[in-house]
């Protein structure tokens, strides 16, 4: 940024803080003019960006420009909206704190364009994925939709936003945009039914009429002529040269699809838009009694179809109102004026609520769809694109709300700017000097204070019974806050002020200046009421959008709805809370002229905006202390060449280096302060003098460096070339001669050896035939290489020469072993474990037990019992022991051989037999003497335990449906592979107290386990396999 200071006479300074005469408004505007004439539309006030609308395309928004500002320090490059965007993004990533960018300015100053550029910057520079690209597209496509439904042509701007918009962009931990949310404020609904001369209604009406397909217009009952609709002719401006409604219609339709609107939703949305136009064309006639009746039945038919309501009910609601008196509903006819107002109120309500539904629908589309942990906070960057301070010839309720909003934003702006300055001074150990500034809290309180504020007075007048009017509101204002220093009326003003004020006006002295407000329409716009019977009709609509916009709960709620001013005050308070919770950045937009001409700079208009935006106040706050501050490293790196002690490099501490440098430059103590990590320079002239000295120093340094480098490089280059040429020539000549001689010798020897080898090819290996035999061997190996088997099952092998038959067989064996090894290596751990268990099972049972072959194709399970089938008390009893396998078994008592269901659990140290929640028997693997099983197909086995162990009651007789799997698991866990005895005929086991039991095994037709008459346990099992 400092590099541009040398051209300051031509292009001004890039930061207003560096203005020498920072208190002069004329100097401020002159700096803006210089930069504007050079197409430099961006200037800083510290970290605040001031943007002047150029009214032409500038080549400063390309992808290359975005990359230039990406990840670069805020002050290292020239001012740009991309610099503000990137600074907020990097602060969000590094500090993990939410950011917001506040964009403000007059209508036509470029606020909407600035917000678009910020969104485009994030869309291009942030990390991307398929899901992120979808969100980026929806974020970008939300703009044309909101512009179509919320923007209109005004006298000051062809694409003026007629609502305030706050958008939160949500980022994931990688810094990619993954979602968003939009809040809208104070849509100018009155524009639906009335426009000033030279202005238009909302864009969507003209886009639909100009761009809609013939079939669509026919279905909606519309003509391709805006002059046919009462709501579109009042401004007498159906077409605008800078707007192409037809192409904009295509953009909007595409955007609706990208955002995720279904065809049915788009159809119902367009039905509502068309119905508003038809409502405007409803005409009334007056009866002799003064009651109104509808003269245009055609419009009612269209409305009934488009809104999905009963035509007769709608017609009745547009000419009558429902009055509830003493619990009884009465219908009262409307006169012409009342009926027209009811029609317009319905139009505004339908459009306003549909716009809110549209914003909510976009929010659903932009919402982050994935789970967010409570620990992991998702950062946001907010964009506030909101109307600037407005002063017209005729200022009404809308301007009052807009200017109240700007008062709140100015209050927040000054507070946060002062706080930011104070925090930086304290962090650097610089004494903070209190700054005197105008605190506009007194104006905010005048508007919003409870019971005594203007909004409270307005609400009270709207709600009180009796004949309340705009004039009675003005009178109450005079009686309640008439003595306030920032408010006056025609009645309270002096003679001079009365000449420029109407009797129906009151004047507020805002931070930006005086504004006269005409109270006509204040009560109606604040009430924003819709007759109950019109709400009832809308609640009965078949249109799904309208059923969401008009909730039936409204009809049951006897509580009076909040007024428009109170709703706006509440939403503004929430907005302030949001902004206070984030780190703010500011973009102040300025309109250079009212004619929207490129290159034209209107001093009066710009002075007006500089005042209303509070830019001079901001500059005064920023310049109250030091005009310039930079980190030691940055300052020393730039200016070290101005001091012999710091040039070419400084080896000590950075603070000492900067101190040495400024002393050499002759800085006076009052001109600078050294903080903990930064230098603070009080006056711009001190910095300018330093920058001029550096510019002079650059020439001498450049000349000296150039001459020294040129001489050194040329001498070095010449010497290197000469010595290299001599060496290369000699070496290359020798190489060429050697190569020629060597090639001749090699060729002669090769031919001689090949012929001699062919002659002696049938003899034993000798010097005469070894070359030939080696060639034959090489040829075979090359052939073998090209024809190797491709799989373990491929048994093909090339035929070998006689001398290589033995070697060929060895190679074949090695290659097959290698292929088998490779196959084994590719087996995954689970399958390998399964095969290892199968190998153990094969070693134990193959050709020994009848039902082994049936177990081979079946996979062994990790466990036969899940966690829910094992009692938690059992698991608690096992403690830290890991359970490796569990299977349901049947245990046969030692006395009587009664069968009892049990669970067999295998841990790393022991086998445990469990009955429900009890550990019945624990057998340590070390104490397990052996395992006996029959050779038949039964599942009975015996675990033999030592008779000396008093804890054991004798051997355990168990039966498992998965005998092969169970015993394999036991053998592996207990390391008893060689301790499994497979018996034929009978098994003897210890019953305890020295007694023995016998199990007899016999072949039969079916499995049967029972106690025999001889007292033995008899097991009959079918013979499945003959061994």
3D structure, described in words:
It is a single chain. This protein has 35 helices and 31 strands. Mean pLDDT is 86; it is low at 371-375. The chain is extended and about 130 Å long. The longest helix has 76 residues, at 684-759. The protein starts with 7 loop residues before the first helix and ends in a 5-residue tail after the last strand. An 8-stranded mixed β-sheet has the order 23-22-21-20-26-25-24-27, sandwiched between helices. The chain is 46% helix and 17% strand. The protein has 1027 residues and is α+β, with helices and mostly antiparallel strands. It comes from Oncorhynchus kisutch. Its main location: membrane. It holds the Pfam family IQ. It is found in: Cell projection, Stereocilium membrane; Cytoplasm, Cell cortex. GO terms for molecular function: actin filament binding; ATP binding; microfilament motor activity.
Question: Averaging pLDDT over every residue, what do you get?
Answer: 86
Number of helices: 35
As laid out across the biggest beta sheet, the strand order is 23-22-21-20-26-25-24-27
According to DSSP, the number of beta strands is: 31
Flag low-confidence runs.
371-375
Our Rg estimate from Cα atoms comes to 46 Å
Helical residues, percent: 40-55%
The main β sheet shows up as: 8 strands, mixed
- The outline comes out as extended
Termini gap: 94 Å
What share of residues are in beta strands? 15-25%
Structural class: alpha+beta
Pfam families: IQ, Myosin_head, Myosin_TH1
Family: Belongs to the TRAFAC class myosin-kinesin ATPase superfamily. Myosin family.
Keywords: Acetylation, Actin-binding, ATP-binding, Cell membrane, Cell projection, Cytoplasm, Membrane, Methylation, Motor protein, Myosin, Nucleotide-binding, Repeat
GO molecular function: actin filament binding; ATP binding; microfilament motor activity
């Amino acid at each position: 940024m400092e590099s541009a200071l040398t051209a300051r006479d031509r292009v001004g300074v890039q930061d207003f803080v560096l203005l020498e005469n920072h208190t002069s408004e004329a100097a401020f505007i002159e700096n803006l003019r210089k930069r504007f004439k050079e197409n430099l539309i961006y200037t800083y006030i510290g970290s605040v960006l001031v943007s002047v609308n150029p009214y032409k395309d500038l080549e400063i928004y390309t992808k290359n420009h975005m990359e230039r500002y990406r990840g670069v320090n805020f002050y290292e490059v020239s001012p740009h909206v991309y610099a503000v965007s990137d600074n907020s993004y990097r602060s969000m990533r590094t500090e993990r704190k939410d950011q917001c960018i506040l964009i403000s300015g007059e209508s036509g100053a470029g606020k909407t364009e600035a917000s678009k550029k910020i969104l485009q910057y994030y869309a291009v520079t942030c990390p991307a994925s398929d899901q992120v690209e979808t969100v980026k597209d929806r974020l970008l496509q939300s703009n044309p939709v909101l512009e179509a439904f919320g923007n209109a042509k005004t006298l000051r701007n062809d694409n003026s936003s007629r609502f305030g918009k706050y958008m939160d962009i949500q980022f994931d931990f990688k810094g990619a945009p993954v979602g968003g949310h939009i809040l809208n404020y104070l849509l100018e609904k009155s524009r639906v039914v009335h426009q000033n001369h030279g202005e238009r209604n909302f864009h969507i009406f003209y886009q639909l009429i100009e761009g809609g397909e013939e079939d669509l217009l026919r279905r909606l009952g519309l003509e391709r002529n805006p002059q046919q609709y009462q709501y579109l002719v009042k401004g007498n401006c159906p077409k605008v040269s800078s707007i192409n409604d037809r192409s904009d219609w295509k953009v909007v339709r595409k955007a609706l699809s990208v955002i995720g609107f279904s065809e049915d939703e788009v159809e119902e949305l367009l039905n509502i838009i068309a119905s508003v136009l038809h409502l405007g064309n409803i005409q009334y006639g007056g009866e002799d009694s003064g009651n109104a009746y509808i003269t245009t039945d055609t419009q009612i038919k269209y409305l009934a179809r488009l809104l999905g309501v009963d035509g007769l009910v709608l017609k009745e609601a547009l000419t009558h109102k429902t009055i509830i008196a003493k619990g009884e509903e009465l219908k009262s006819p409307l006169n012409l004026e009342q009926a027209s107002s009811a029609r317009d109120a319905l139009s505004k309500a339908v459009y306003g609520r549909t716009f809110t539904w549209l914003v909510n629908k976009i929010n659903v589309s932009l919402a982050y769809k994935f789970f967010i942990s409570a620990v992991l906070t998702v950062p946001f960057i907010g964009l506030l694109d909101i109307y600037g301070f407005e002063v017209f010839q005729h200022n009404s309720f809308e301007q009052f709300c807009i200017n109240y909003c700007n008062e709140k934003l100015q209050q927040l702006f000054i507070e946060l700017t002062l706080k930011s300055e104070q925090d930086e001074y304290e962090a650097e150990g610089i004494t903070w000097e209190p700054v005197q500034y105008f605190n506009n809290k007194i104006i905010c309180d005048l508007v919003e204070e409870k019971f005594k504020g203007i909004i409270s007075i307005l609400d009270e007048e709207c709600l009180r019974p009796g004949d309340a009017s705009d004039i009675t509101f003005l009178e109450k204002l005079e009686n309640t806050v008439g003595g306030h220093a920032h408010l006056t009326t025609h009645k309270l003003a002096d003679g001079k002020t009365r000449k420029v004020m109407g009797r129906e006006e009151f004047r507020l002295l805002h931070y930006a200046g005086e504004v006269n407000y005409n109270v006509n329409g204040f009560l109606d716009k604040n009430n924003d009421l819709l007759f109950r019977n019109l709400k009832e009709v809308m609640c009965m609509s078949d249109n799904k959008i309208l059923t969401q916009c008009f909730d039936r709960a409204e009809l049951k709620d006897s509580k009076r709805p909040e007024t428009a001013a109170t709703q706006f005050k509440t939403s503004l308070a929430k907005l302030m809370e949001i902004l206070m919770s984030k780190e703010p950045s500011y973009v102040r937009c300025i309109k250079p002229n009212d004619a929207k001409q490129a290159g034209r700079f209107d001093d009066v208009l710009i002075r007006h905006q500089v005042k209303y935006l509070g830019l001079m106040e901001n500059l005064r706050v920023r310049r109250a202390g030091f005009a310039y501050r930079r980190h030691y490293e940055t300052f020393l790196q730039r200016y070290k060449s101005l001091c012999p002690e710091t040039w070419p490099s400084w080896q000590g501490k950075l603070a000492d280096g900067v101190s040495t440098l400024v002393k050499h430059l002759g800085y006076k103590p009052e001109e600078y302060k050294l903080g903990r990590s930064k230098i603070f320079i009080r006056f711009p002239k001190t910095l300018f003098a330093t920058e001029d000295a550096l510019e002079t120093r650059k020439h001498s340094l450049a000349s000296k460096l150039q001459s020294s480098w040129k001489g050194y490089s040329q001498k070095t280059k010449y010497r290197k070339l000469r010595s290299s040429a001599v060496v290369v020539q000699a070496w290359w000549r020798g190489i060429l001669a050697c190569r020629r001689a060597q090639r001749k010798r090699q060729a002669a020897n090769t031919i001689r050896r090949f012929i001699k080898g062919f002659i002696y090819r049938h003899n034993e290996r000798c010097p005469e035939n070894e070359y030939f035999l080696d060639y034959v061997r090489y040829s075979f190996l090359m052939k073998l290489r090209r024809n190797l088997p491709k799989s373990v099952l491929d048994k093909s092998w090339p035929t070998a020469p006689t001398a290589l038959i033995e070697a060929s067989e060895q190679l074949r064996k090695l290659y097959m072993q290698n292929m088998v090894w490779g196959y084994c290596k590719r087996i995954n751990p689970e399958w390998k474990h399964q095969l290892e268990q199968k190998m153990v099972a094969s070693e134990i049972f193959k050709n020994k037990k009848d039902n082994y072959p049936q177990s081979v194709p079946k996979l062994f399970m990790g466990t036969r019992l899940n966690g829910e089938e094992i009692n938690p008390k059992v698991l608690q009893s096992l403690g830290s022991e890991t359970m490796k396998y569990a299977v349901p078994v049947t245990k046969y008592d030692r006395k009587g051989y009664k069968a009892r269901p049990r669970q067999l659990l295998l841990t790393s140290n022991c086998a445990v037999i469990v009955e429900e929640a009890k550990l019945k028997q624990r057998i340590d693997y070390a104490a397990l003497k052996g395992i006996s099983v029959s050779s038949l197909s039964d599942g009975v086995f015996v675990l033999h335990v030592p008779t000396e162990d008093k804890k054991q009651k004798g051997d355990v007789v168990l039966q498992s449906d998965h005998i092969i799997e169970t015993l394999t698991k036991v053998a592996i866990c207990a390391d008893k592979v060689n301790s499994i005895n497979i018996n034929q005929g009978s098994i003897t086991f210890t019953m305890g107290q020295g007694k023995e039991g016998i199990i007899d095994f016999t072949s039969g037709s079916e499995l049967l386990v029972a106690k025999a008459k001889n007292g033995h346990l008899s097991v009959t099992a079918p013979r499945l396999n003959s061994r």
